[in-house]
Amino acid sequence: MAALIVRARxxxxxxxxxxxxxxxxxxxATIDDGAIxxxxxxxxxxxPTAEIARGRRSADVLDLGRCVVVPGMVDxxxxxxxxxxxxxxxxxxxxxxxxxxxxxxxxxxxxxxxxDPDRFYRELLGPRLHTILLHGxxxxxxxxxxxxxxxxxxxxxxxxxxxxxxxxxPSLVSTVLGAHALPPEFEREGHDAFVxxxxxxxxxxxxxxxxxxxxxxxxxxxxxxxxxxxxxxxxRENGLRLRxxxxxxxxxxxxxxxxxxxVDAVDxxxxxxxxxxxxxxxxGIVTVACPATIAYLDLPRRAPVRALLxxxxxxxxxxxxxxxxxxxxxxxxxxxxxxxxxGLSAAEALYGVTRAAATSLREDAGSIRPGAAADFVxxxxxxxxxxxxxxxxxxxxxxxxxxxxxxGP
Length: 409
Description:
Helices cover 34% and strands 22% of the residues. It is built from 14 helices and 16 strands. Strands 1, 2, 3, 4, 5, 14, 15 and 16 form an 8-stranded mixed sheet that branches. An 8-stranded parallel sheet has the order 6-7-8-9-10-11-12-13, with helices on both faces. The longest helix is centred in the first third of the chain and has 18 residues, at 117-134. The protein starts with a strand and ends with a strand. The relative contact order is 0.17.
């Protein structure tokens, strides 16, 4: 692969140890009239154009003109491996009626699609993931959780693992979300019995099917803190890292339990307490906030993002992309909701979809620096301060993943 020099008006590297709270673009290591040198899919140098171009006269040049280049965005919470769209649920919600389908419909349709997993991926999942990449997400956490039995969950994990490094889609990070909801087979036995099943049947094989993380939906009416604790302890014993859906729609003590379990990330956290804020920040656990979900569901409370940041914590912004509560795959739009609902600055929001998100996943992503994969996005915005201002479309003029131009000139 020939060496490549990428030039832009402004490059925001996010190669920084600065705290997220009140960070500005100087703190995110911004370079005006900057360039990136790439060899074999990795960044070898980044800096002022005159400096980077010196001694590299034979390199190809990609001139991104007046674009602002930022790291490839990292989505730390997403559920894209599903079949069964639920627009009727949305139509019912906005007209004040009860949703007719619910998660059971998605489970039914996903199980059916998994009867031919190659077709499922080729016709639905692959194109969906490609669209996500075209909007600037180059690293994507992908959860299972829409089969809710061992064969289906293993098949979903296999699909994620098989395609994790494909060209034309984001790099995939696999999470087993067995404790997502109660499947129809366990309606009589209940949640305790289903957790026993997951501990006995699914978690021992999840890492072998490519899972890095285990996750659970710890929420009143779904899985209790004690049920979730048992699930997480078994997951850790089987070699998995931990993250949890916590206190999304009401308070149930999920975050407090998750902190005690030593998770890498607590997600949603709309109803957590002041004590939870202090504990999360004090333990260095990343909060993964999902503002598009708050907007979609008109939730009465939102994650206390400013309090978490002021306490020294770190907050990722994620899509929560799923068919029922957040059919939003575009982190540019999520950044807008992060600014509007949480009062984040442009720099704090960019940190949230790059550095903080990558940290929550323990992935080497979210920055433009020598040695890193050449993943970045050229945005058609006038200055970095516009990040998260315009929304509803795609401002990604050029997307580069592993040094390959995915879209653009």
